[in-house]
Each structure stands twice: as structure tokens, then as C-alpha cells.
């Protein structure tokens, strides 16, 4: 019999109080019960603040708790307050639950992605402004004169800005207010966001685009789940075409999310959006200021923001009425998040679309093998754009066999490529040299004793960065000044740079083409998004002759005068034994060469390679995309790799190797028997040591139709807890395997 274990029941304790279960944004699955203070009007989904240990955290009411444990009854803490924002919709709460169940990331961690609205939420602070109204003050000073001069136009200015602009302290302004020379008035609220106009500038479509646009339109009209693959070659105008679906969503008054792999690179995209719809969309990514973040979060939640352009985390925003998701460049690696929660934003976009019963558009010139298979089997509808807009031809691609036509020792641009660049520059066209390697050289070696500079805490060479004059570890960020002497044998002048990075390539370009204007684009040389955007503009405006870049330049840009792309090391991504290497190389090279010849003239791509007979090179040279996918799909099917089987990786790391290996072995020993599953390993992870942590990997492979997440959950529930420096991460659908 349940009896209240209370010796002195107080009236308060006997009063049935309302209890709710709250999800807090910490790495836990469970919810916590809190009591609802009288008079607080709460519904499930409300965003609240609650006391947690010694802190106050923002959390979400996840469920009513009609039968709270009576023993807790009198000990529950109260909800402290409710934020003035719309409650999170059931659709989003189900999505959070789903992602957590599927990825094995804790529910609290997933919820945290939804609650990243920053501290600045709440009623907008009223800012005070000052305006010149009265007679000049009796006592005049130089500082006062500057303020009067600034405000002589009679306009209202924020107090602090007026002080800053006039170069005076706020007290000078306040003195003038006291004397009646200035008045203080509240600044008007920030303008509400202007809605995008679907008819602002409708494009003239080519017949091919018209057909695809009509399909987009029909898709967006359905209020139901469906996935379309917008499969168009580089320069076919995929953006203009999926804008038709976006336009339809705007007409319906609903919201659309456009996911982009690399938000820093979307400057041109934002311009195109405003040219088409008359206003800029809302952005969502990690570089927003806290104030903008809060404003955008709220605008999404209350439906004021109709279109969101965002990085993968934008999937977790609390849309008031999401009607469409577009995943641009759906094959891109950057969609995979691999810290905290491991998830693939493209796959989760499809899940979110399914839960919300809305259409999803995946756009790419080189779809992932998974998506291509889904399109072939009819699970996704393919909407094709097989030719370029404006009658432009696809670039012609040639291989340069480095075994026969390679550059002299210590140089990296072969004579035929150098010749082609020379012609391009002479014709006042642009050339792009692509090398997916940051820095000057990937390895520094002592010619006297053979010493190689490597990171002390990672299993990696230190990369020579000459612009920064440092050797840098690309895995942990460790860096040291470039040495002039070998630390091992003491020899001077003996250190040699081995292999090229973009900085070294620029040196070679400067020697070959001293007259040309060059620019290096590499993520480590970018200080902020605005600099990046302005550099890309300089290229687009033709103020650069030769662009030297890493994969940053491959993505999405339109450079009207670029007709030549030279891939300096086409084999770079192929040699690492990863089954996805061929697919990735094919996608990347296709994309970077796809920058050429988009607006005038014929684009040409050169692939410098040691293996021109490799299927990737052959498919590129023959422009035979189908052949590549055919053979790649067949290989995946033979090995039962995704999407024909399922994969998960368990990554075990520890401060020392025996701990990591021992735990990994114990874990494998505990794997539940299941004939539809194969457990491989443990083996050293592809990067065996990162930041001083030794890493082992267990690969779990299952049949396609199998609840792999459930299997892993059962397995890990029986495993010992990780202690000390040990960590265990689950990566469902790993991108390299
Ligand atoms: P993709 O993403 O398929 O590589 P984009 O959408 O970037 O191609 O389009 C390539 C170029 O063609 C862009 O400069 C775009 O503005 C232009 N373009 C595409 N379709 C049209 C159209 N119907 N009218 C005018 N310009 C177009
Ligand atoms: Zn390191």
C-alpha cells in the first residue's frame, strides 16, 4: 500500500501540485521533474528556466507528469520562470527524440541544439537616443561643440553611439541633457523583417529549366512528405530552379529552410536570393553575434522569418510552420557533424521532412551514392537538368600523366599546365590552381639526419606555414616557430620542405608568371566571413588572374572570367584506403572543374595524376558520370557497404594506449550475438593519436533492414562505464570507414 512517508503532513504537502518533466540541455537522456508554481501558465513545449545543481538553465517542458513519485513530492524544485517565446511544437520534440534514439546522442545534447538562442532573448531592450532641441549651453567646451556639431542635423541617435562618434564620454552627453540642450527619447524598435516577395524578379527559364521548375512548384504545393533529387550539372541553374519551390512556400505563407554546407561561402548566394526575392533571408550559423542569434531565433519561432539559410544546426530551430527543406550540395562532407552529437544533416533533413510531412529537395551535380541509389530505386524523384544554362558547354577535361609529363624536381606545375595558364592569362581570363592542402609544405625533413618534424601529441606531421612563419599540427592546432636548425643533429641550413601546399604553389606561380595578380584562398588565411566574402567578390569582378586554393574555392562560386582549372594533385584523396575515397574525389574534382566556363568561352580542366587509368580519372575525362556511379554502386553492393548494409563506428580513446585497447577488446567481447551483425576490430582508428589520446575503432556492420541503433544501445547498456580518461563515442553512419 502506498503511504505518504510524511510524519507531519503540512497542508502544502498534501495539496496535489502540478508536476512536469523537463528536458535540460546537458548530456543526459532523462528528464527531470519540477513542480509548477501556482499561477504559472505552462504547456508542454514551453521554454522555461529551472534550477539545476547550483545553476539556472534554460530547458523545455517535455511532458506532463500526472503521477509523480510521492516520495519526491515535497522535495521537487519549482520551475523558476517561463520565457516569452512560443512553445516548441510537437513536431520538433518528436524530431529531437528521433535524432537522439537514432544517433545514441543524449536527448539533452540534441535539445541543446534547439535551445542555442543565446542569452539575449526576451523583450528587446529599449535603447535610448538623444536629439538636439534646445539652445546651446551657457558653458561651451570643445567636447560639447563636437556633440552639437554631430547632432546639428536634428536626428535621433543612440546615446552611446553619439558619444562614440563625437569622441566624448557619455557624461558629456548627459550634461547637455541636464541643461536642456538635448532630449532623451526611446529609439524606434528595429524594423520588422520584410517578407520576401515571390514575384520580385521571376527568371526567364530555359525550356529544360521550365520543366524542372514546374516539378518543383508541384512538389512545394503538396503538403506532404516527398524527397526530390535536383540532379543538375554544374552551371545548370539548380539554384534558380529550387527557388521556384521556395517561391511557392512564400506564397503559401509558410517557412523554408535552405541548408548550405559552408555558410562562410554563401555571400554570392545571399545576393542572388535578394535579387530574386527582394530581401535577404535570415542566416543561421555559428558566426552570428549573440544579439543577431537571439533575434533570428525568435523570428524563426514566431514565424516572422520566412526563409532561413543555414548550416546544419539550422535543422534544429523551432520553426513556427516549416513547409520545405532544401539541402544544397547534398553530397558535401560538411553536413556530417562529428562532435557532440554525430549526425548527418542531409539524412536528418529527410527525417525532419518525414515527421513534419513536408517536401525535401536534395540538390547536387554529384549526388552521394546513397542518394543516387534512392533515386534509381524510385524512393526519391529525380528532377534532372542535364545541360548548362545559356548554352554553355561543360568543361573539357584532360589528364596530365605525371609519370611522363611531370614538372622538374621540387616543382609542382607541369609544363602543359603551365602553358595553359600562360594562355589563359594572356587572353585576360582567369585560371584556378586547385590543391587541397593548406600551408607551404606538409612535411619538413632534415637532410643531414633524416629527422622529421611531427606533433608531440598527435600521430601527424607538422605542416610548414610560411605566411605565419610556424610549423602547425592540423589536428590539435599545436604550433611552433619555424626552426632554422635541426633539433636532433644540430645541423644548420639542412631543413627541407617536402611536398606542396598552396603557399608553396603561390611561390612557384610568382616565379612562372611574375606579372600575374594572384590570390591564395585557404581556410587558415581567413580571419572572418566578411573578408572572405570580399575576396571572393574581387575574384568575381576579375581583379585576380590566378587563383590558388583549397576546397574552399570548389564550392558553389560563379567566377565569370574563370575558364581554366588545374588540379595540381588529383590523386591526393585516393590513397588513404577509405572505401569512400573514390566517391569523394570524384565529387570534389567535378565540383572544382565545374567552376570553369560558366558564362563565356569553353571551360577546360587539367588533372595532374600518377594514375590516369584510375576509374575516377577515366570517368572525369570521359565525362561519364553514369559509368562511375554504376561501378561504385556495384562495389558497395558487393561489400554490403551503405546503402546496401548499415555501419556504425565505436571510437574508444584514452590517455594511454593499453587502456584504450583493453577497453575496446572488452567491449567487443560483450557484443550481443546476432547473425545479422558483424563486429570488426578493434583496430587503431585512422588517426591513431589525436591530442595525446590513443584511439581505437570498432566497426559494426549490419544488414540494411535492421535496428542497428537498438542493437548498439543493448550492447552498450551491458558495457562497463568509461572511467578516468576513457571515452566512448558512437558514430552512426560514419562517413569514412
Ligand atoms: P548550379 O548551382 O547548377 O551550378 P547556378 O544555379 O549557380 O548553377 O547557375 C549558374 C549561373 O547561371 C548563375 O550565374 C545563374 O545566375 C545563371 N542562371 C541560371 N539560370 C538562369 C536563368 N534562368 N536566367 C538567368 N540566369 C540564370
Ligand atoms: Zn597535434
UniProtKB/TrEMBL annotation:
<keyword id="KW-0639">Primosome</keyword>
<feature type="binding site">
    <location>
        <position position="449"/>
    </location>
    <ligand>
        <name>Zn(2+) 1</name>
    </ligand>
</feature>
<keyword id="KW-0347">Helicase</keyword>
<feature type="binding site">
    <location>
        <position position="473"/>
    </location>
    <ligand>
        <name>Zn(2+) 2</name>
    </ligand>
</feature>
<comment type="similarity">
    <text>Belongs to the helicase family. PriA subfamily.</text>
</comment>
<dbReference type="GO" id="GO:0006269">
    <property type="term" value="P:DNA replication, synthesis of primer"/>
</dbReference>
<keyword id="KW-0413">Isomerase</keyword>
<dbReference type="Pfam" id="PF17764">
    <property type="entry name" value="PriA_3primeBD"/>
</dbReference>
<dbReference type="Pfam" id="PF00271">
    <property type="entry name" value="Helicase_C"/>
</dbReference>
<keyword id="KW-0378">Hydrolase</keyword>
<dbReference type="GO" id="GO:0016887">
    <property type="term" value="F:ATP hydrolysis activity"/>
</dbReference>
<dbReference type="GO" id="GO:1990077">
    <property type="term" value="C:primosome complex"/>
</dbReference>
<keyword id="KW-0238">DNA-binding</keyword>
<dbReference type="InterPro" id="IPR011545">
    <property type="entry name" value="DEAD/DEAH_box_helicase_dom"/>
</dbReference>
<feature type="binding site">
    <location>
        <position position="446"/>
    </location>
    <ligand>
        <name>Zn(2+) 1</name>
    </ligand>
</feature>
<dbReference type="InterPro" id="IPR041236">
    <property type="entry name" value="PriA_C"/>
</dbReference>
<dbReference type="InterPro" id="IPR014001">
    <property type="entry name" value="Helicase_ATP-bd"/>
</dbReference>
<keyword id="KW-0067">ATP-binding</keyword>
<protein>
    <recommendedName>
        <fullName>Replication restart protein PriA</fullName>
        <ecNumber>5.6.2.4</ecNumber>
    </recommendedName>
</protein>
<comment type="function">
    <text>Initiates the restart of stalled replication forks, which reloads the replicative helicase on sites other than the origin of replication. Recognizes and binds to abandoned replication forks and remodels them to uncover a helicase loading site. Promotes assembly of the primosome at these replication forks.</text>
</comment>
<dbReference type="InterPro" id="IPR040498">
    <property type="entry name" value="PriA_CRR"/>
</dbReference>
<feature type="domain" description="Helicase ATP-binding">
    <location>
        <begin position="219"/>
        <end position="385"/>
    </location>
</feature>
<feature type="binding site">
    <location>
        <position position="489"/>
    </location>
    <ligand>
        <name>Zn(2+) 1</name>
    </ligand>
</feature>
<feature type="binding site">
    <location>
        <position position="486"/>
    </location>
    <ligand>
        <name>Zn(2+) 1</name>
    </ligand>
</feature>
<dbReference type="Pfam" id="PF18074">
    <property type="entry name" value="PriA_C"/>
</dbReference>
<feature type="binding site">
    <location>
        <position position="455"/>
    </location>
    <ligand>
        <name>Zn(2+) 2</name>
    </ligand>
</feature>
<dbReference type="GO" id="GO:0006270">
    <property type="term" value="P:DNA replication initiation"/>
</dbReference>
<feature type="binding site">
    <location>
        <position position="458"/>
    </location>
    <ligand>
        <name>Zn(2+) 2</name>
    </ligand>
</feature>
<keyword id="KW-0479">Metal-binding</keyword>
<dbReference type="GO" id="GO:0008270">
    <property type="term" value="F:zinc ion binding"/>
</dbReference>
<dbReference type="InterPro" id="IPR042115">
    <property type="entry name" value="PriA_3primeBD_sf"/>
</dbReference>
<keyword id="KW-0547">Nucleotide-binding</keyword>
<dbReference type="InterPro" id="IPR027417">
    <property type="entry name" value="P-loop_NTPase"/>
</dbReference>
<dbReference type="GO" id="GO:0006302">
    <property type="term" value="P:double-strand break repair"/>
</dbReference>
<keyword id="KW-0862">Zinc</keyword>
<dbReference type="GO" id="GO:0043138">
    <property type="term" value="F:3'-5' DNA helicase activity"/>
</dbReference>
<keyword id="KW-0235">DNA replication</keyword>
<comment type="subunit">
    <text>Component of the replication restart primosome.</text>
</comment>
<dbReference type="GO" id="GO:0005524">
    <property type="term" value="F:ATP binding"/>
</dbReference>
<dbReference type="GO" id="GO:0006310">
    <property type="term" value="P:DNA recombination"/>
</dbReference>
<dbReference type="InterPro" id="IPR041222">
    <property type="entry name" value="PriA_3primeBD"/>
</dbReference>
<feature type="binding site">
    <location>
        <position position="476"/>
    </location>
    <ligand>
        <name>Zn(2+) 2</name>
    </ligand>
</feature>
Amino acid at each position: 500500500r502506498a503511504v505518504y512517508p510524511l510524519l507531519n503532513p503540512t497542508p502544502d504537502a498534501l495539496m496535489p501540485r502540478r508536476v512536469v518533466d523537463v528536458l535540460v540541455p546537458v548530456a543526459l537522456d532523462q528528464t527531470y521533474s519540477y513542480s509548477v508554481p501556482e499561477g504559472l501558465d505552462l504547456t508542454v513545449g514551453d521554454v522555461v528556466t529551472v534550477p539545476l545543481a547550483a545553476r539556472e538553465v534554460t530547458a523545455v517542458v517535455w511532458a506532463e507528469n500526472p503521477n509523480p513519485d510521492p516520495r519526491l513530492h515535497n522535495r521537487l524544485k519549482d520551475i523558476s520562470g517561463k520565457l516569452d517565446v512560443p512553445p516548441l511544437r510537437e513536431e520538433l520534440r518528436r524530431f529531437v527524440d528521433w535524432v537522439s534514439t537514432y544517433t545514441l546522442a543524449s536527448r539533452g545534447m540534441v535539445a541543446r541544439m534547439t535551445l542555442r538562442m543565446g542569452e539575449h532573448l526576451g523583450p528587446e531592450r529599449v535603447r535610448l537616443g538623444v536629439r538636439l532641441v534646445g539652445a546651446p549651453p551657457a558653458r561651451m567646451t570643445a567636447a560639447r561643440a563636437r556633440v552639437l556639431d554631430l547632432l546639428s542635423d536634428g536626428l535621433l541617435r543612440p546615446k552611446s553611439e553619439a558619444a562614440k562618434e563625437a569622441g566624448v564620454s557619455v557624461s558629456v552627453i548627459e550634461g547637455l541633457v541636464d541643461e536642456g540642450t538635448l532630449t532623451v527619447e526611446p529609439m524606434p524598435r528595429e524594423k520588422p523583417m520584410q517578407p520576401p516577395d515571390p514575384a520580385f524578379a521571376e527568371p526567364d527559364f530555359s525550356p529544360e529549366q521550365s520543366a524542372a521548375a514546374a516539378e518543383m512548384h508541384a512538389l512545394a504545393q503538396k503538403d506532404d512528405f516527398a524527397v526530390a533529387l535536383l540532379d543538375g550539372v554544374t552551371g545548370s541553374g539548380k539554384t534558380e530552379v529550387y527557388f521556384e519551390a521556395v517561391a511557392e512556400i512564400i506564397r503559401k505563407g509558410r517557412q523554408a529552410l535552405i541548408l548550405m554546407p559552408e555558410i562562410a561561402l554563401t555571400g554570392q548566394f545571399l545576393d542572388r536570393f535578394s535579387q530574386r526575392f527582394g530581401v535577404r533571408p535570415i542566416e543561421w550559423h555559428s558566426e552570428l553575434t549573440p544579439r543577431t542569434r537571439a533575434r533570428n531565433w525568435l523570428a524563426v519561432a514566431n514565424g516572422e522569418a520566412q526563409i532561413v539559410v543555414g548550416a546544419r544546426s539550422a535543422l534544429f530551430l523551432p520553426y513556427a510552420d516549416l513547409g520545405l527543406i532544401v539541402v544544397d550540395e547534398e553530397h558535401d562532407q560538411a553536413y556530417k557533424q562529428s562532435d557532440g552529437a554525430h549526425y548527418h544533416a542531409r539524412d536528418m533533413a529527410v527525417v525532419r521532412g518525414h515527421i513534419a510531412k513536408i517536401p525535401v529537395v536534395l540538390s547536387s551535380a554529384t549526388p552521394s551514392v546513397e542518394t543516387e541509389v534512392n533515386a534509381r530505386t524510385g524512393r526519391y524523384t529525380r528532377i534532372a537538368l542535364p545541360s548548362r544554362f545559356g548554352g554553355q558547354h561543360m568543361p573539357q577535361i584532360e589528364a596530365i600523366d605525371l609519370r611522363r609529363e611531370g614538372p622538374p624536381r621540387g616543382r609542382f606545375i607541369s609544363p602543359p599546365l603551365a602553358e595553359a595558364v600562360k594562355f589563359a592569362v594572356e587572353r585576360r581570363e582567369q585560371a584556378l590552381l586547385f590543391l587541397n592542402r593548406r600551408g607551404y609544405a606538409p612535411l619538413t625533413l632534415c637532410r643531414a639526419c633524416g629527422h622529421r618534424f611531427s606533433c608531440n601529441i598527435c600521430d601527424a606531421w607538422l605542416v610548414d606555414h610560411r605566411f605565419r612563419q610556424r610549423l602547425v599540427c592540423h589536428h590539435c592546432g599545436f604550433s611552433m616557430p619555424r626552426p632554422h636548425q635541426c633539433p636532433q643533429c644540430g645541423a644548420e641550413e639542412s631543413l627541407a620542405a617536402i611536398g606542396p601546399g598552396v603557399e608553396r604553389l603561390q611561390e612557384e606561380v610568382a616565379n612562372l608568371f611574375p606579372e600575374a595578380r594572384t590570390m591564395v584562398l585557404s581556410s587558415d588565411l581567413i580571419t572572418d566571413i566578411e573578408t572572405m566574402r570580399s575576396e571572393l567578390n574581387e575574384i568575381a569582378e576579375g581583379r585576380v588572374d590566378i587563383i590558388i586554393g583549397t576546397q574552399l574555392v570548389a564550392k558553389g562560386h560563379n567566377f565569370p572570367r574563370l575558364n581554366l582549372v588545374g588540379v595540381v594533385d588529383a590523386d591526393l584523396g585516393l590513397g588513404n584506403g577509405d572505401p569512400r575515397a573514390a566517391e569523394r574525389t570524384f565529387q570534389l574534382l567535378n565540383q572544382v572543374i565545374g567552376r570553369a566556363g560558366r558564362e563565356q568561352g569553353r571551360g577546360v580542366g587539367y588533372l595532374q595524376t600518377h594514375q590516369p587509368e584510375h576509374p575516377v580519372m577515366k570517368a572525369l575525362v570521359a565525362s561519364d558520370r553514369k559509368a562511375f556511379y554504376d561501378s561504385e554502386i556495384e562495389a558497395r553492393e558487393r561489400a554490403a557497404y551503405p546503402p546496401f548494409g548499415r555501419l556504425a563506428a565505436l571510437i574508444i580513446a584514452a590517455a594511454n594506449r593499453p587502456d584504450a585497447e583493453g577497453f575496446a577488446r572488452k567491449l567487443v567481447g560483450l557484443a550481443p550475438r546476432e547473425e545479422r551483425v558483424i563486429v570488426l576490430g578493434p583496430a587503431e582508428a585512422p588517426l591513431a593519436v589525436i591530442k595525446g589520446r590513443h584511439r581505437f575503432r570498432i566497426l559494426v556492420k549490419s544488414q540494411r533492414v535492421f535496428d542497428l541503433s537498438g542493437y548498439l544501445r543493448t550492447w552498450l547498456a551491458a558495457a562497463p562505464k568509461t572511467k578516468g580518461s576513457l571515452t566512448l563515442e558512437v558514430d552512426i553512419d560514419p562517413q569514412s570507414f
